[in-house]
Structure formats: structure tokens, C-alpha cells
């Protein structure tokens, strides 16, 4: 079977599996859409409250039902470098809306936390759940029923998935996502990693480490490595929710502002009041979801999206599974090398041809659904471009370059960096897990070694500092799932295990927690499902048990016979310290309700 045919077959499988839930979703969408324009259902008192603070001209426009009103959902705060640029976006959007004959209002703000700040800290235990809080907060903003379309201002890890879940929950409204762009390049990512490793080994102090980190994360914009935040931007463009060429333009530039104005105009053009109504719930379908997964594989994107894509798809009534993601990986080549899968950052990726080049290569190879709908109003071929400023200051678009500007960063589909994508599902008597292989050397993708069991990343780090992590081993870090402590990223383990691997030890990680979107060279079986607190077999592993992690054959195996495993008691750690502090006590219900990782880990 050709790769193109395999993509079609997997899409058909998803479509058939999703038919009952998708049909119910679309029926509800049509019911909501039948009430348009939304302000016509509001009483005079409702409407007066809704535009009381508006300028006189906007009040006059909103008192009728023929001028489109654009709701702005913003994740702005000025602690996150990626979201700080959004401070000026609402004023820009409002002005662009007036010029286009519409009105725009800030419908609501949503929280946006930075995993870079909370890594290894108690606050990280709120990170995954923040996605669902963001979805609910956005829903509250849109619940006023004042809007004909919405634009979403968000970039980072859980923010974009939460915003898309909300957008699909209001699927009768058109939706355009507006990015802020990456910060300019700072200290090279490989140098940053080298300094971190020296610090972990005690060879440099905190001052030297902080200096290096500050040179890496140095200004407004998204962090420049290819983690979850920049994977989000790729997804929004390849799924047709950004404008063509919008994702990786630096903030604070005339081109960035012009793209924001154009996105506003486009959002107003696709409301039900015009002739090109594009409700996001119909626009995003099985083809769009598959295109997103293909893009994730082709770029070696974040493992976090093996959770988020399932939750986002479910919001549109689409049932995506880990097996779908794994099967697609078998047919999608890796075409990008961006840190941690290479040395380049996203600015280098954009300079080498960026998403326009990548999307064209995938289309030419038959690996994307070219006919998937987009906010731009045409198929995905329209996204094989670079955005630039024309002589009049308006957006112009030119075809993406025919050849990669740097073949160490971007490859043609005929000569990929590797034949398959970077994500694999592992299965065995420990359950199911995800492993990212795009940054793992082929000779390290299979490891069989005794277990060293820990019930927190702090315990593993303490063992490292004590010098007790000798020889080959597989680190088992358990009780890190959604129900145990909110499934934090265990990013602090990346450097420690990397040091041991560089010393010549064969090491791997098995955990029911997550790793950062920037995790890389150490083979890591993550998101183990069922999790330990739900009675998963990972809770019965003991020190010295032999485990096999085989990313080539998709195997996660504990070499303990079934009868012996059943006789073992489940470990019962004291999780009380994870239940309070820094707001964790407010999320007890979330921990109880959270679904399995392979079901999206959502609380609704």
C-alpha cells in the first residue's frame, strides 16, 4: 500500500469510528447556527449590557444585526515571553475590525502558565489541567452570545489546545487563531544543553547556568526550540486555523502587525452575515486532524500532542486513538531537524523554507489532505507560501522556495532524515506508552535492563547526586499520572539521564508522567497507561526486574510472569504532599475525574 493510500485508509477508519459522535456534534452545531445572528436573540437589556462600554459608533453598529462582532479571547500576560506581545493586539484588532466594517470586543481572558517557569516545581502539577481550565474560561467569555466569530490569541503548551477545545465547543462560530511569533535567536540550543549538563555534573555554578539560560530566553516571543509551543503553531497552520505563512514571524515587526490585521479581516469575512460562512466545527474534520498528526510526525513534534490532539479531536466529535497516531507515523517521513531533534531553532527552520516548504513537500508526496478546509477559504495548497510585506504595506505571498535553504534543517520528501515519523506507541504487559524517537540515536532505541524504581523525580535526582545510579538500568518513575498528581512534565530528568548516557551507561525511562516537548536523546516510554494510581502494572514493578523498551518493534515488556505480577501488592506511596500548596487543593476534583492519557486526560 502506498503512503498516500495508507493516509486515506486511516482517515476513513477514524471517520467511521467517529460517525455517531460526529453526527451528534454536527447536529448540535446546526442547531446553534440556526439562531444566528446571535444578538438577535438577546433582549434589549441583555444587549445594552453587552455594549455599554463601547464607543458610540460601535454601539450603533451592535444595536442592529447586520454588522459582524468579533470576540477576542486572549491569553495575554506579561510574565510569559510568548504572550507578552499580545498586550497590543486587541487595539490593533479593534481598529482593523472597524476598517473592515465590523466591531471587535475582548470577550474574555484565559490563564496562561509557563511550563518553563514551573518545571520541577509544585506548580507544574497544575499544568495539564490548565488546558481544561482555559477551555472553560474561554467558553465563559463566549457564553454572552454577542459574537459572530472569534479570534484566539495564544501560543504556548496547554493554551492553544485549550483554546481550540473551546473554539470547537462553539463550533457554529468561525475561528481564526492569531500567533505572536518566536523570539529572535539567542544562545544556541546545543550550547544551552551543554551548560545545563555541566551544572548537573557540578562543574559550574548557578551564576554560570543562569547567565546561559538568560541568553537563551532573552526577549518577547516563543522559546525558539521545537517543543510543545512551536508544535502548536505548526498544528494551527497545517490544520488551516492560521493564515498562510503566519506562524513563525517574529513579534514587534511590521509583518507581524500586518498579519494580525489581515487575520481580523478574514475572521469578519467568514461569519454567517456574509457569503463565505465557515463555522470552525465543520471546517475542522477528520482530514484536518490527520493533517495535524502528519505535521507532528514530519517535524518530530512534541509528545504532549499525543494527549492534546485526542482531546481536541474529541471536542469536534472525532475519536482519534494512539494507534491511529502510531500507524500514521509508519508512513510519514521526518523532514525537519529542529532542536532537540537537531541543532537549528525555529528561526533557522523558517529561514530554510519553513512551513510553506514543509507543507508543499508533504502535499507533493500525497501525505496531506489537500482538500481539507481552511480559514483562508481554499485548500491546503494555498499554504505552500511565505508571507511578506508588499510595497503598499499589505501582505504579499510568494511560493515557498523550491529547495531547502539548509538541507540539515529541512529535507525534501525524496530524501528524508528518516523514513518514519518520530512517535511510536509501545505495548506490552505494562500497558501502553508513547516514545519519541526522532532525537534518539538508532542504536539506543532498544534497551533491556534492570529497573530502578522511584516515586518522584526528586528521588531519582537525589540518587544521581549520591552516585548510586551505576551500570545500565531503566528508571521507573511512577505515580506521576493525571489522577496521582496532575501528570507533570518530568523535564528535570532529561539532563540527569543524559549525563549518565554520555558516560557510557545504557539508560531509559519508563513513567506514567509526561516529558517536556523538548525531551530528546534518552529513550523514554512516557504516558504509561493505565497509570500507577489506577492500578496499572507499573505500580507492581520492583527494583531489579528486567524491562525491555523496544522502540523498533513497539514493545514495552516487564519480564515477570503474570501470576507473580498479580500476587504483588500495589505500591502505596504517600501522595498527601501533592494535594495542597500553590493551588493544588483546588484541583482535587480534576485529579479524580481525569481520563486516561490515551483518552486525552480531560476532565470533561
From TrEMBL:
<dbReference type="GO" id="GO:0005829">
    <property type="term" value="C:cytosol"/>
</dbReference>
<feature type="domain" description="Dihydroxy-acid/6-phosphogluconate dehydratase C-terminal">
    <location>
        <begin position="408"/>
        <end position="601"/>
    </location>
</feature>
<dbReference type="InterPro" id="IPR056740">
    <property type="entry name" value="ILV_EDD_C"/>
</dbReference>
<keyword id="KW-0004">4Fe-4S</keyword>
<feature type="domain" description="Dihydroxy-acid/6-phosphogluconate dehydratase N-terminal">
    <location>
        <begin position="68"/>
        <end position="381"/>
    </location>
</feature>
<keyword id="KW-0311">Gluconate utilization</keyword>
<dbReference type="GO" id="GO:0004456">
    <property type="term" value="F:phosphogluconate dehydratase activity"/>
</dbReference>
<comment type="pathway">
    <text>Carbohydrate metabolism; Entner-Doudoroff pathway.</text>
</comment>
<dbReference type="InterPro" id="IPR004786">
    <property type="entry name" value="6-phosphgluc_deHydtase"/>
</dbReference>
<comment type="similarity">
    <text>Belongs to the IlvD/Edd family.</text>
</comment>
<dbReference type="GO" id="GO:0009255">
    <property type="term" value="P:Entner-Doudoroff pathway through 6-phosphogluconate"/>
</dbReference>
<feature type="binding site">
    <location>
        <position position="223"/>
    </location>
    <ligand>
        <name>[4Fe-4S] cluster</name>
    </ligand>
</feature>
<keyword id="KW-0456">Lyase</keyword>
<dbReference type="GO" id="GO:0019521">
    <property type="term" value="P:D-gluconate metabolic process"/>
</dbReference>
<dbReference type="Pfam" id="PF24877">
    <property type="entry name" value="ILV_EDD_C"/>
</dbReference>
<dbReference type="InterPro" id="IPR000581">
    <property type="entry name" value="ILV_EDD_N"/>
</dbReference>
<dbReference type="InterPro" id="IPR020558">
    <property type="entry name" value="DiOHA_6PGluconate_deHydtase_CS"/>
</dbReference>
<dbReference type="InterPro" id="IPR042096">
    <property type="entry name" value="Dihydro-acid_dehy_C"/>
</dbReference>
<dbReference type="Pfam" id="PF00920">
    <property type="entry name" value="ILVD_EDD_N"/>
</dbReference>
<dbReference type="GO" id="GO:0046872">
    <property type="term" value="F:metal ion binding"/>
</dbReference>
<keyword id="KW-0119">Carbohydrate metabolism</keyword>
<dbReference type="InterPro" id="IPR037237">
    <property type="entry name" value="IlvD/EDD_N"/>
</dbReference>
<protein>
    <recommendedName>
        <fullName>Phosphogluconate dehydratase</fullName>
        <ecNumber>4.2.1.12</ecNumber>
    </recommendedName>
</protein>
<keyword id="KW-0479">Metal-binding</keyword>
<feature type="binding site">
    <location>
        <position position="156"/>
    </location>
    <ligand>
        <name>[4Fe-4S] cluster</name>
    </ligand>
</feature>
<comment type="function">
    <text>Catalyzes the dehydration of 6-phospho-D-gluconate to 2-dehydro-3-deoxy-6-phospho-D-gluconate.</text>
</comment>
<keyword id="KW-0411">Iron-sulfur</keyword>
<dbReference type="GO" id="GO:0051539">
    <property type="term" value="F:4 iron, 4 sulfur cluster binding"/>
</dbReference>
<keyword id="KW-0408">Iron</keyword>
